Amino acid sequence: MAKVLTALSHSLKEFRLLPGYTPADSTAPKVSLCTRFCRQGDGFLQLYTPFLSAAMQAVTGTEMAIGLAQLGGIGILPVSQTVEEQCAKIDRVKRFKAGFQTNILTLSPQQRIGEVMEIMASTGYSTFPVTQSGNFHDQLIGILTDKDFDSRRDHECTVAERMKTDVQAGVELKDLKEANELMIQYGRGFLPILSKEGVLQAVVFKKDLDKHLLHPNESIDQQKRLLVGAAVSTHPEDQQRVRALVEHEVDVLVVDASDGHTQFQQQMIKWIKANFQVPVVGGNVVTAEGFRFLVEAGADAVKIGMGIGSGCTTSEIKATGRGQGTALMDIAQARDELAGKKGIYIPMIADGGISGPAEMAVALALGADAIMMGNFFARYTESAGNLVRNAAGEVVKEYWMEGSMRARNFRRYAHVKDLLFEEGITGYVPHLGSIYDKFPVVLQILSSTLATAGCRTIEELHQKAVLEMLSPSAMLDSKVHDMVPMNIDQQIL
Ligand code: IMP
After folding, report:
1. pLDDT tens digit string along 291-313?
2. What residue spans define the domains of the chain?
3. Which of 13, 77, 312, 348 to mutate to test the pocket of ligand 1 (most atoms within 8 A of CB)?
4. Nearest residue CA, atom 13 of ligand 1?
5. Mean of all residue pLDDT scores within the chain
6. Burial letters 120-158, b for 16+ CB under 10 A, else e
7. Are the C-beta atoms of residues 114 and 156 closer than 8 Å to each other?
8. Who lines ligand 1 at CB under 6 A?
9. Counting atoms of ligand 1 from 1, which one is nearest the CA of 355?
10. What is the CATH number assigned to the segment(s) 12-97+218-477?
């Protein structure tokens, strides 16, 4: 006979946090939302803010990945695109900014300005070091920028005739702060770093420094480039995809499957771990058994959630899934037991069904280290879905699930090619404006929640949070009632 669990499965909406004591030095501005996103080597890949944008066509493209990384989270590029498209997006995120750059395009003195103009038009770059041979690691002899020539008359001139030769450079500088200070002292937008012999070693751009000063909590790698993740499927042919993504220096791989408790996923994770250093996130699972299975396979973090995505029909049509509150509680216990017994901490990522900061706070308090969202991020200008006008004349963002026919993502939702049914719908979400303007509000609300709960960090929240479930009438009280809000923004954030 089937085993029937008669205890109810609970959603995040059913919980509230009780206030804890808040000392004067633990108010919201003192709260850190820094989190352990996944295991990396002997430690963890940390994020300043605990957010991942979903690996969905409508959500994560280059702009979202850049925007979210600048705000301290990380974007996960979906698997439902060609390997080339996914790799090109990684390149764009990685090239957005850096500290010491060691592989930028370099010119030779004999090149024609006409050719340089073509390079500028195709790459968007406007500043180039000029070396003897045209190779990066060679004697620096000048700098050419788009201000050094007349684009109407100078086509046939050589780079040597137009470049500036009074170059101010740093010598043998290894410290980025020192390099930035020297660049500011020289009043330049660009500082080449040379060896004692005058060979070009690296360059530093002022615009990269400005970007960092604007977003001090950005997620960056060792070379100060933004972090970016990419999804892969469990299909054996995606081993090729993994190789390409690793070559393009992806920071984390996320195995994308609606049900992660499968032999396919086990094989894929084991294969990646046996061949590469890159961290791997497994999922999705909703049971302690599924979690332990993925940890055993080698997952560096595990995504939790089934049947709860905003446009997901899995639970309705297949009757599979679990309330996210219950899934997180069950798995948090298994995760903590594992940490106690073996000293291995595996971060949990709550994926899907989050409609606002209250649910984010509850997910974190129930043990999640990070949160993946599709719908919530799809609302921002930077999401990959189109901005359109709906039938009512409102400006909205298109949002479609990965299991919808529109996404044609048969990889995630079936191991057979001719899948006849959809597991997600296609529709719209309201357009809220730019992630840069709007998301900081969410971060502030979350910090405020932690402060009220008497916690300064997410780790502390895991240990000290006291949650309580709401009765149906307490739930009514917990929302705006007996009043009509003046403007819609107050409802949606
Ligand atoms: P949302 O933030 O509630 O919109 O949920 C996003 C999450 O839903 C994704 O990160 C996926 O885990 C999941 N998801 C994406 N596409 C589908 C689908 O077609 N059916 C069910 N779940 C989906």
Report:
1. 999 999 999 999 999 999 999 99
2. 12-97+218-477, 113-205
3. 312
4. 309
5. 93
6. beeeeeebbbbbeebebebebbbbbbeebbeeeebeeeb
7. yes
8. 54, 56, 258, 284, 305, 309-310, 312, 314, 351-354, 372-376, 401-404, 423-424
9. 3
10. 3.20.20.70
* Cα-to-centroid distance, 310 and ligand 1 (Å): 7
d(C-alpha 75, C-alpha 125), whole Å:
24
Answer whether 55's CB lies under 8 Å from 193's CB.
no
Per residue in 241-271, pLDDT (tens digit) is: 999 999 999 999 999 999 999 999 999 999 9
Any idea which architecture 113-205 has in CATH? Roll (3.10)
Q: What is the C-alpha separation between 232 and 78, in angstroms, rounded?
A: 8
Atom of ligand 1 nearest to the CA of 404: 19
Cβ-Cβ contacts under 8 Å for 354 (sequence gap 6 or more): 12, 360, 363, 371, 373, 375, 376
- Range list of H helices, 343-409: 357-365, 375-378
Q: Cβ atoms within 10 A of the Cβ of 216, count?
A: 9
Distance (Å, whole) CA 329 – CA 465:
13
pLDDT digits (tens, 9 = 90+) for 135-177: 988 999 999 999 999 999 999 999 999 999 988 898 988 888 8
User: Which residue, chain included where needed, has tokens 């695109």?
Assistant: 81
E-assigned strand segments in 163-273: 170-171, 190-194, 200-205, 229-232, 252-255
Say which of 38, 188, 225, 312 is annotated catalytic: 312
Catalytic site residue 412? yes
What is the amino acid identity at position 83? V
**Which protein residue's CA is at the shortest distance from atom 8 of ligand 1?**
309
Domain 12-97+218-477 matches domain 113-205 at the CATH topology level: no
Length of the chain measured in residues? 493
Respond yes or no: is residue 406 known to be catalytic.
Answer: no
Q: What's this model's pTM, rounded to 2 decimal places? A: 0.90
In the reported structure, the alpha carbon of residue 432 is separated from the centroid of ligand 1 by a whole-number distance in angstroms of 20
Q: What is the distance between the alpha carbons of residues 165 and 172, in angstroms, rounded to a whole number?
A: 20
